Automatic annotation (TrEMBL):
GO terms for molecular function: 3'-5' DNA helicase activity; ATP binding; DNA binding; four-way junction helicase activity; hydrolase activity; metal ion binding. Belongs to the helicase family. RecQ subfamily. Keywords: ATP-binding, DNA damage, DNA recombination, DNA repair, DNA-binding, Helicase, Hydrolase, Isomerase, Metal-binding, Nucleotide-binding, Zinc. Residues 518-598 form the HRDC domain. One of its GO terms (biological process) is SOS response. It catalyses: Couples ATP hydrolysis with the unwinding of duplex DNA by translocating in the 3'-5' direction. Residues 219-363 form the Helicase C-terminal domain. Its EC number is 5.6.2.4. Its cofactor is Mg(2+); Zn(2+). This is DNA helicase RecQ. It comes from Bacillus benzoevorans. SMART domains: DEXDc, HELICc, HRDC, RQC.
Length: 714
């Protein structure tokens, strides 16, 4: 029989060999055993019932949750000249009648039906009048309440099956089954544990990436520019977001379509076809798009927002690379997306236990974004707890070449702060207490009296939050489920608290790491560059004669749209303003308008001091320095100038190295200075990191550098 199956594989489908798992599942079905097959998306589940259907007498029934999915499969079977049809609500009465009568005559090898069909006595009668060797449950996780896509109509088929007067073999197929779900499917469909076939969840051709704290739109534009003519899907979490992103990317000239439940059927159909037939490159969609779309050459799937759980994520991301070619899956993480998912959970009519479960799953999705474990490994182990960790070698964790540094002391501070706060608060408040924030709520709760208050004063709040999230992901801390989760310390933290175990984390300890970070809007830069080229061509001069790159870059940082603001840009004096000011202001205004930039976040540079016409004017680092000397805090400068705090510190250091004065006592005291100098005696000043380590990580890089400056050691 198996040889025959292999011949059919070649004859009808044109494939030379079975994929992992297919042979075993087909063989088991041919031996008339109920079977559960768990194969990843794109693993080739359809063939697992299509081939047996050709070998059995009679008509195989396939239960499938979506109309589009049935149609696609029937279409492709028809091109392979395998007689197949479907029965669902998209047919009119006449069509339905015709198909039913052909089914009765045994004209089809496969009939696809929606689960609701089994509620019709007429349909059951029809099935009882023909021979049915096999019933296939495609997307079988829909049968389980534990699954992420539970459909009650799937479950009620089970009782309808008892009304059948023959005893077909049952095969259930799914890509995403946790142990709970698999157990549920087996007990409902009378499948023995030994008849479960699982090829593992790994998708070797997918590279997973998580990216945090970036401007998502900028990222996407840059990403898409690098992937011209490639098929990809961008998932967003709401219709509105899909609409916005669609307009934005279309205006940028990308070839896109959009898909969500708010569009009418004709619009959705058109979008889907454009995508499937490669008429457009990028599909921007909500999670309404995708199930049943068998497009094999999707090269990337980007998630613009956090999905609700790992099952949903893996299914959506798994639509990349069904053809086995290398493909990418990116998740753009923003902490505010967690709130949206919580809101969606609250909106549902789920009972308490189910809701807690959803919160729990959401938590595990968030942990995916914070883990340092290989991302493919994290997903596999999510579905299969027994699976040993792997290293895929191409995800953003595996590719993260930052060194692990010891954070034991920091971790101890976090654990003990959590304990002292009574293990009753969330991540943000914990971080604020450690940071020593002066917030009213913290004083009201008396947390400013805790011994752990302000212990991590020198760190940014974001850095503390990142570390707490990492400790959560690593299991030292746990977050309770529910709407208002609180952080607790687990037993894994005890040896760390006792000082017998250390904690390591990949971090950016070096200031230099951020050196390449861009501060200006690159898209706008592109626009202004083109504009400059046009002007230069008109005047037959090289572009830099009009404005230098650094001038354009400043424009892309400050968005000057008034004469006064423009005149404060380095390289723009009265003469040049008179010639080019207006065109550039117009281009920048247009850009602000097109991108709906908030004026609030657009900051004017500080007034230039004593500048002369077209001279090299106040450089960026001196501007920072000026603000700092005017009493603006580092955080505030960073926020206002849209720089990282590290860049701000570098600006100040550079200004001081160039001879600007600084009030040292505001930055360090004598004792600290002495400590740093002692450490310098030991390790020199070639590299900062060993110095920082020699000081047990207790003294900020900024302080170390200012001490070096003060003593003129460089
Ligand atoms: P799933 O339902 O598991 O997500 P499909 O059944 O839709 O996957 O199959 C995905 C793709 O893999 C299809 O294009 C299919 O034709 C192809 N495929 C299936 N089996 C094989 C095989 N043995 N060899 C090569 N390609 C295969
Ligand atoms: Mg399938």
């Amino acid at each position: 029989m198996l040889d025959e199956a292999k011949r059919l594989l070649k004859q009808y489908f044109g494939y030379a060999s079975f994929r992992n798992g297919q042979k075993e599942i087909i063989e088991n079905i041919l031996n008339r055993k109920n079977t559960l097959g768990i194969l990843p998306t794109g693993g080739g589940k359809s063939l697992c019932f299509q081939i047996p259907s050709l070998l059995f007498q009679g008509t195989t029934i396939v239960i499938s949750p979506l109309i589009s999915l049935m149609k696609d499969q029937v279409d492709s079977l028809s091109t392979a000249e395998i007689p197949a049809t479907y029965i669902n609500s998209s047919l009119n009465n006449q069509e339905l009648k015709e198909r039913m009568s052909l089914i009765k005559k045994g004209a089809y090898k496969l009939v696809y039906a929606a689960p609701e069909r089994f509620e019709s006595a007429h349909f059951i009668d029809l099935l009882n009048s023909i021979e049915i060797p096999l019933i296939a449950f495609d997307e079988a996780h829909c049968i389980s309440q534990w699954g992420h896509d539970f459909r009650p109509s799937y479950r009620s088929i089970v009782s309808s099956l008892r009304q059948l007067n023959h005893n077909p073999v049952i095969v259930a197929l799914t890509a995403t089954a946790t142990e709970n779900v698999a157990g549920d499917i087996c007990s409902l469909l009378a499948i023995h544990a030994e008849d479960t076939f699982k090829t593992g969840f790994a998708r070797e051709n997918l590279a997973f990436h998580v990216i945090k704290g970036t401007n998502k739109r900028d990222f996407i534009v840059q990403y898409l520019l690098k992937k011209p003519k490639q098929s990809g899907i961008i998932y967003t979490s709401s219709r509105k977001e899909t609409d916005h992103l669609y307009s934005f990317l279309t205006a940028k000239g990308f070839s896109c379509a959009k898909y969500h439940a708010g569009l009418n059927e004709a619009e959705r159909k058109k979008a889907q076809e454009q995508f499937v037939y490669d008429e457009i490159d990028i599909m921007i969609a909500t999670n309404a798009f995708g199930m049943g779309i068998d497009k094999s050459n999707v090269r990337f799937v980007l998630h613009y927002n956090l999905p609700k759980n790992v099952e949903a994520y893996y299914q959506e991301a798994g639509r990349a690379g069904r053809d086995g070619e290398e493909s990418e899956c990116w998740l753009l993480f923003g902490a505010q997306d967690i709130q949206l998912q919580k809101f969606l959970i609250e909106e549902t009519s789920l009972d308490f236990a189910k809701r807690e479960q959803e919160y729990h799953k959401l938590n595990q999705m968030v942990m995916y974004c914070h883990t340092e474990e290989c991302l493919q490994s994290y997903i596999i182990r999510y579905f299969d707890h027994e699976h040993p960790p792997i290293q895929c070698g191409k995800c953003s964790s595996c590719k993260d070449s930052r060194e692990k540094i010891e954070i034991t002391r920091e971790a101890q501070m976090i654990f003990s702060c959590c304990k002292r706060m009574g293990e009753r608060f969330g991540v943000t408040l914990m971080a604020q207490v450690l940071k020593g924030s002066g917030q009213k709520r913290i004083r009201e709760l008396g947390f400013d009296k805790l011994s752990t208050y302000g212990l991590l004063r020198t760190r940014s709040e974001k850095d503390i939050i990142d570390t707490i999230n990492y400790l959560l992901a690593e299991g030292y801390l746990l977050m309770t489920d529910g709407k208002y989760p609180v952080v607790k310390v687990t037993h894994k933290a005890i040896p760390v608290l006792k000082g017998v175990e250390t904690v390591m984390m990949k971090k950016n300890p070096d200031l230099e790491t951020f050196a390449a970070e861009s501060e200006e809007n690159l898209e706008l830069f592109e626009i202004l560059r083109v504009l400059r080229k046009e002007l230069a061509d008109q005047e037959h001069v090289p572009p830099f004669v009009i404005f230098g790159d650094s001038t354009l870059k400043e424009m892309c940082r400050y968005y000057p749209v008034t004469e006064a603001a423009m005149l404060q840009i380095k390289g723009v004096g009265q003469t040049k303003f008179a010639k080019y000011g207006e065109v550039f202001i117009n281009a920048i205004s247009q850009f602000i308008h097109d991108n709906e930039l908030e004026i609030d976040s657009i900051i004017l540079p500080a007034p230039k001091k004593h500048v002369q016409e077209d001279q090299e004017e106040q450089p960026s680092h001196l501007l920072t320095y000026q603000w700092y000397m005017d009493g603006v805090t580092l955080e505030e400068i960073a926020r206002k100038r849209q720089l990282t705090k590290i860049t701000v510190q570098k600006h100040i250091i550079r200004s001081v190295q160039e001879g600007q004065p600084l009030n040292w006592t505001e930055i360090f005291d004598e004792e600290t200075e002495q400590k740093v100098l002692n450490a310098i005696q030991l390790c020199g000043i070639e590299k900062l990191k060993p110095l920082w380590e020699a000081l047990n990580g207790e003294i900020d890089y900024f302080v170390i550098q200012t001490v070096i400056c003060k003593n003129q050691l460089r």
